[in-house]
Amino acid sequence: MFGTRSFMVREQLLVGALRTGGLLVRVDPDRHGELTTRPGARQATMGTGRDMGAGWIEVEPEALSGAGLALWVDVALARRG
After folding, report:
1. How far is it, in rounded angstroms, from Cα 32 to Cα 9?
2. Where are the stretches annotated Disordered (predicted)?
């Protein structure tokens, strides 16, 4: 799915490991604007120039070191309420 190795919780995508070493993260759409201001985070796209919409963020590999990976997994888990 989405060209990633995806991890799901209760049949919903949580995160996907991208071929680039980055992470595709499903987030609460209400927090999308706030979360895309974090270092290494940007609006996720499908192919060239097609936004995936609010709630989908791509995180660069450099932003996943240290506590970065855990932070983004926690953000994705929080979406589930």
Report:
1. 20
2. 30-49
